[in-house]
């Protein structure tokens, strides 16, 4: 099952937060006790209604052409337990013929002549087939009687799949008490979510159960940690401040409070991750009986925040203000000087304007940064980008030689900062290559990627240093820069879904390889 919390580029920070909140609510609903089937599933249906955006959720059993609602949450006047109607007059007949999630966005347009719409008049619907004991049982549905669905996002589909798994497990439990072990296995599938660390504690903070995801991170068996004070287990005891944060959260949860905090953990292999942690009380008869602790990996989100902080630090040093002054002075010089000196002033003016423009673009990047990429990527012709960047790089050294061999029809997935990405690499090659540097820019198609090679005959980069030059703040020993350029290049290429690395050039220097996806 794909999940929006796996850190892939397609995941949005707002959707991550909404999905996390939904899963936390679902875990709490599953932990609530109930003596009947309706008492157990209605809190889960309520979670689905809230986070999927529907006023009603219900479960129906189907037998032949008979359709009967057996559990419902919301809209009790129109859809409630016990309501029966022919399957042929329900939206569920379409769901049972669909292998996945069946979505109807605007029934008044797509189902105007359908008997189901004529009978119920529901405008929006999402449902899936429920199976139990190896056979088709019925449907899980959420409906809206008068509003269409604007969208049904990936995280909502994932939540719907989790709801389906849990409801099917409850159906198994209801229709076959003697199949408890099988039902428990299905419940474990949700408990052992590979994206979330989950622990269940006694009210005194003693760990009594933990999922496989959390155990795998510290390479331990349940017997190694269950029965121990939770805050003294390996997830927390590597750092006293982290353990204290956990201890404080448990104390507050014991008093009935839901506590959220962030923490850093060290795995058995030395891997460090950041998590968003929620500690929730489970109460019965007015007192806290159990505590559920969930941790979700937010390491990628923290990395994005670090990148934003770095870009902000560059802007805070006055690039925009400083370059505006330089631009004004260069414009004055260009108007008053003659000959070669006037040309030099024009070059300074052009570069100043380019840098001011780049600074404005970076500010725009910071305003739009999110987990699904820094900016909105699109299909861009590579040839004009390279042509413009080589002209700018050539102006740095009249004796350098730049040769390009770019096919006219090559298009890549990027954005309007690609010219600055390519320009950074080219100007870096001119600056560090020495007088009279030769630079060759070529491309090759490798599977779904285009490899842009920027090769030079300069002194090259030792293999041991090739990865480090793309890190934040890194610069060569002879460089007077900030370490911004190649880090910026790396971040932007990563946001396009590409990669960048350095090889030894056939010319004897360095070959910067930029791999960019093709739409």
TrEMBL record:
<dbReference type="InterPro" id="IPR029016">
    <property type="entry name" value="GAF-like_dom_sf"/>
</dbReference>
<keyword id="KW-0812">Transmembrane</keyword>
<protein>
    <recommendedName>
        <fullName>histidine kinase</fullName>
        <ecNumber>2.7.13.3</ecNumber>
    </recommendedName>
</protein>
<dbReference type="GO" id="GO:0007234">
    <property type="term" value="P:osmosensory signaling via phosphorelay pathway"/>
</dbReference>
<dbReference type="InterPro" id="IPR003018">
    <property type="entry name" value="GAF"/>
</dbReference>
<dbReference type="GO" id="GO:0004673">
    <property type="term" value="F:protein histidine kinase activity"/>
</dbReference>
<dbReference type="InterPro" id="IPR003594">
    <property type="entry name" value="HATPase_dom"/>
</dbReference>
<dbReference type="InterPro" id="IPR013656">
    <property type="entry name" value="PAS_4"/>
</dbReference>
<dbReference type="GO" id="GO:0030295">
    <property type="term" value="F:protein kinase activator activity"/>
</dbReference>
<keyword id="KW-1133">Transmembrane helix</keyword>
<dbReference type="GO" id="GO:0016020">
    <property type="term" value="C:membrane"/>
</dbReference>
<dbReference type="InterPro" id="IPR035965">
    <property type="entry name" value="PAS-like_dom_sf"/>
</dbReference>
<dbReference type="Pfam" id="PF01590">
    <property type="entry name" value="GAF"/>
</dbReference>
<keyword id="KW-0067">ATP-binding</keyword>
<keyword id="KW-0547">Nucleotide-binding</keyword>
<keyword id="KW-0808">Transferase</keyword>
<feature type="domain" description="Histidine kinase">
    <location>
        <begin position="314"/>
        <end position="519"/>
    </location>
</feature>
<dbReference type="Pfam" id="PF02518">
    <property type="entry name" value="HATPase_c"/>
</dbReference>
<keyword id="KW-0902">Two-component regulatory system</keyword>
<dbReference type="InterPro" id="IPR036890">
    <property type="entry name" value="HATPase_C_sf"/>
</dbReference>
<dbReference type="InterPro" id="IPR050351">
    <property type="entry name" value="BphY/WalK/GraS-like"/>
</dbReference>
<keyword id="KW-0418">Kinase</keyword>
<dbReference type="InterPro" id="IPR000014">
    <property type="entry name" value="PAS"/>
</dbReference>
<dbReference type="Pfam" id="PF08448">
    <property type="entry name" value="PAS_4"/>
</dbReference>
<dbReference type="GO" id="GO:0005524">
    <property type="term" value="F:ATP binding"/>
</dbReference>
<dbReference type="GO" id="GO:0000156">
    <property type="term" value="F:phosphorelay response regulator activity"/>
</dbReference>
<keyword id="KW-0472">Membrane</keyword>
<dbReference type="InterPro" id="IPR005467">
    <property type="entry name" value="His_kinase_dom"/>
</dbReference>
<dbReference type="InterPro" id="IPR004358">
    <property type="entry name" value="Sig_transdc_His_kin-like_C"/>
</dbReference>
């Amino acid at each position: 099952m794909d999940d929006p919390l796996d850190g892939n580029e397609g995941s949005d920070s707002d959707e991550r937060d909404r999905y996390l909140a939904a899963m936390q609510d679902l875990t709490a609903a599953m932990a609530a006790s109930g003596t009947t089937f309706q008492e157990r599933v209605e809190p889960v249906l309520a979670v689905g209604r809230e986070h999927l955006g529907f006023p009603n959720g219900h479960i129906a059993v189907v037998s032949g052409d008979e359709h009967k609602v057996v559990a419902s949450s919301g809209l009790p006047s129109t859809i409630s337990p016990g309501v029966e109607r022919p399957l042929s007059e329900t939206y569920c007949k379409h769901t049972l013929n669909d292998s996945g999630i069946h979505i109807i966005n605007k029934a008044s347009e797509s189902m105007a002549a359908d008997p189901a719409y004529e009978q119920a008049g529901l405008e929006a619907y999402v449902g899936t087939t429920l199976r139990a004991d190896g056979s088709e049982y019925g449907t899980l549905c959420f409906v809206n009687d008068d509003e269409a669905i604007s969208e049904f996002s990936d995280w909502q589909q994932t939540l719907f799949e989790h709801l389906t798994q849990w409801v099917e497990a409850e159906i198994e439990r209801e229709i076959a008490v003697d199949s408890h072990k099988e039902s428990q296995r299905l419940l474990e599938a949700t408990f052992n979510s590979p994206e979330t660390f989950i622990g269940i504690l006694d009210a005194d903070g003693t760990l009594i159960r933990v999922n496989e995801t959390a155990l795998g991170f510290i390479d331990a068996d349940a017997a190694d940690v269950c029965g121990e004070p939770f805050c003294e287990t390996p997830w927390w005891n590597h750092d006293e401040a982290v353990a204290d944060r956990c201890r404080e959260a448990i104390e507050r949860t014991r008093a009935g409070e839901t506590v959220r905090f962030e923490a850093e953990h060290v795995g058995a292999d030395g891997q460090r991750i950041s998590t968003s942690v929620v500690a929730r009380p489970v109460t019965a008869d007015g007192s806290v009986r159990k505590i559920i602790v969930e941790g979700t990996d937010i390491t990628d989100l923290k990395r994005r925040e670090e990148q934003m902080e770095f870009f902000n630090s560059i802007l805070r040093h006055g690039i925009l203000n400083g370059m505006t002054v330089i631009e004004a002075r260069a414009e004055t010089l260009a108007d008053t000087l003659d000959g070669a000196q006037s040309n030099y002033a024009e070059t300074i003016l052009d570069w100043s304007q380019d840098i001011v423009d780049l600074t404005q673009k970076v500010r725009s990047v910071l305003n739009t940064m999110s987990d699904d990429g820094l900016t909105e990527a699109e299909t861009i012709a590579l040839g004009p980008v390279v042509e413009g960047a080589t002209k700018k790089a050539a102006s740095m050294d009249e004796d350098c030689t730049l040769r390009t061999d770019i096919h006219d029809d090559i298009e890549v997935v990027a954005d309007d900062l690609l010219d600055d990405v390519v320009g950074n690499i080219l100007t870096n090659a001119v600056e560090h290559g020495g007088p009279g540097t030769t630079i060759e820019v070529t491309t090759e198609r490798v599977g779904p990627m285009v490899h842009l090679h920027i090769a030079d005959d300069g002194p090259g980069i030792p293999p041991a240093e090739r990865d480090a030059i793309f890190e934040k703040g890194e610069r060569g020993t002879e460089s007077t820069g900030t370490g911004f350029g190649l880090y910026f290049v790396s971040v932007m290429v990563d946001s396009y879904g590409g990669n960048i690395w350095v090889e030894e050039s056939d010319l004897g220097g360095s070959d910067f390889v930029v791999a960019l996806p093709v739409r």
